[in-house]
Amino acid sequence: MAKRVLIILRRLNIGGIQTQTSLLAGEFLRKGCSVTVLVQKKSYSSTPEVTMPAGAEVYCRDFDRESKLNPFCFFSRVAAMPLLYLLSGRIGRYLVPGIFISRLTERFIENLEKEKGRFDLILIRGEGAIEPLYRLRHRNLWGVVEGVVPDFGRNCFTRHFARLLFGGKNIVCVSEGEALSLGAMFRRTGAVPARLETILNFINPDYVKERSLEKIEGLPEPGYIVTVGRLSGIKNQGLAIRALAYLPESVRLVLVGEGCCRAELEGLAESLGVRSRCIFTGNLPNPYPYIRNAAMLVHTSKYEAFGMVIAEALALGKPVAVTEAPGGMRNILKGPLADSIVPADERSLAERIRKVLESGEKPDTSVLSDFSSDNTAGKFLELSE
User: Fold this and answer.
1) Which pairs from 182-185 meet CB under 8 Å and 24+ separation?
2) Which candidate, 164, 185, 157, 163, places its Cα nearest to that of 173?
3) Structural domains of the chain ordered from first start
4) Torsion-angle region of residue 271: left (phi > 0), alpha (psi -120 to 50) or beta?
5) 20, 109, 222, 239: which has the fewest Cβ within 10 Å?
């Protein structure tokens, strides 16, 4: 009998988690599974959406918004949220709403199961999706952690929430580096998961190569360096801009993505005298032609659960310069590729970029065989056995 899989994620706006979810759903379907996707929030209109594969049922239910229609929930938020936010920062914003969101989600799942049969596997994917469902219970439920691990150890309130969120739960990490970060957090907070597994994200090189051939108007002349990601503090594109100031004037930097730090980054480029050498593309539904046309990828994130775009650049035969940070990048950049990782300062990054541009370095792509889609999907399905 075909297995039934439910995947829950925050939004469909294009990003690493969303792209990985779409590809994973496709692999489940190819293995004969029934796939349902539950999206917690409507997409931002300013950002393109990821398309789920044909055959997957997709529901969008904003239980956060629906819960506010409950007077008790509404007034509980008004009364408790300011204090909880003061005591525990952004983590505290989930404590009260999570009670109601979890219950509404639970009822939704129960109704789906009554109509179509029990789910053999439920995956909640990523930061912002797991936290508001901290009270959700199901025997086949797994939380897939792929993002920054917050500082749950700052005080007794955050440690308590860590125990609520992870204690007695089934947890999947998408890299060995992520597992180490989570393990350290569990020791600080006393949160003890029921099971902790590591299942590496996967890459589909054929998909990346095919999409990279799409014709794009306004594509810059080849030879630039490129960053891909949300323009935010955690992605740290300012480091790439500062490194650009140490490179010859012929070197251009293309920044693919949009975010809250765009104005700040543009101001930084202006102050360093490199604004004319920086191209901000905004959000793009398909970044792969920009990677294919680049001389190399630069990745400066302060934390990366896996580093999907690094693997995608390698699939397109592009060398990379990656700054040292916690997370899963060393699952990808190992062996000869380990030299691609440099200290997180602009001089070291500039030196790595200069070396690649002058040498015409070609990366060893054999490591990509470790991240096959069939292997990853199979390991997830084994969780339901």
Assistant:
1) 182/145, 182/149, 185/149, 185/152, 185/153
2) 185
3) 4-199 (3.40.50), 205-369 (3.40.50.2000)
4) alpha
5) 222
* Residue-wise pLDDT tens digits, 90-140: 666 777 788 889 999 999 999 999 999 999 999 999 888 999 999 999 999
Cα 182 to chain centroid, rounded: 16
pLDDT tens-digit series, residues 239-262: 999 999 999 999 999 999 999 999
Residues 322, 339: Cα–Cα separation, whole Å: 9
Question: Distance between CA atoms of 101 and 4, rounded to whole angstroms?
Answer: 23
